Fold:
Amino acid sequence: MIIAVTGGAGFVGSHLVKSLLEEGHEVIAIDNFVTGTIKNFYFLPKDFKERFTLLEQDISEETVNIDFKLDRIYHLASPASPIDYANIPIETLKVGSIGTYNILNLAMKHKARFLMASTSEVYGDPLEHPQKETYWGNVNPIGPRSCYDEAKRFSEAMIMAYHRVHGLDMRIARIFNTYGPNMRLNDGRVVPAFISQALKGEPITVFGDGNQTRSFCYVSDLVRGLKSLMETPNIHEPVNLGNPAETTIKNFAEMLLTLTGSTSKIEYKPLPQDDPLRRRPDITKAVQLLNWHPEIPLSVGLTKTIEWAKQYV
Ligand SMILES: NC(=O)c1ccc[n+]([C@@H]2O[C@H](COP(=O)([O-])OP(=O)(O)OC[C@H]3O[C@@H](n4cnc5c(N)ncnc54)[C@H](O)[C@@H]3O)[C@@H](O)[C@H]2O)c1
Structure:
């Protein structure tokens, strides 16, 4: 198949591109490098290069023109870390609205199946726990995170409208915290931040009292879930993809100290505004519809990520 991946130079996108190439597909990555980097393609073997095209383009600014017929479009382009979207909130809103609109039209033109990387942030600071896809969310529409949360909610609404009005064959993946090699170590997300601090022997910064929870999914599990969602027929509704194993941030910091052998101390700082207290996916739907569940335990995924990160600190 010929497959386009917007945001292909980002953390998740680069793993997806590699995996699709490994399966023998032709892949076109579309990216403006606002948070991604060409270096993320370092792990593409040379013989893949003839089936791989990189299109440097801002999907919010211009429509994407591709001459040959696309079969699938994975739409991943969007800043994804709180530091990134705090720095570029308008670009974040634009890519979730105009960018999504442009890529939806590309999908219509090519009659391509379309999958969008949505997020657990559509649930905001959830009042229901764990979060099922039926939960409508608790989002502050004008808070500092709203540029991301509302852009993703808008994207979902737009995709559903294209499905209802134009019959677009679409998928929505609501992704929960994912980690692994190719994350930027300074992107502010908790996994790279803690790994980087631990490897440098700096204090590990825990916001709040550390009792807030997160659930971390290793990137290879997520990529398998995204491909499975794309290829399973007729799933025209959002599906959560994440690892339901929940850990407190404090326990997570302690685990990292053990795995890195670091002597860093844990330092507590005030919780940022609208930071969710609990986050855990209910993945019943993914298990039932896709027979998907995460396979990589946190300690194994973290060990791989730490090994990768060592070359950068
Ligand atoms: N990683 C996670 O834990 C997580 C969780 C939930 C949802 N997601 C979603 O998955 C997708 C990928 O996330 P990631 O962690 O790989 O983030 P990332 O920042 O590493 O990758 C995003 C990519 O999109 C590109 N991009 C952004 N705006 C663009 C534009 N206007 N035109 C073209 N390219 C643009 C960036 O340059 C980057 O390469 C995002 O849509 C994100 O919202 C990720």
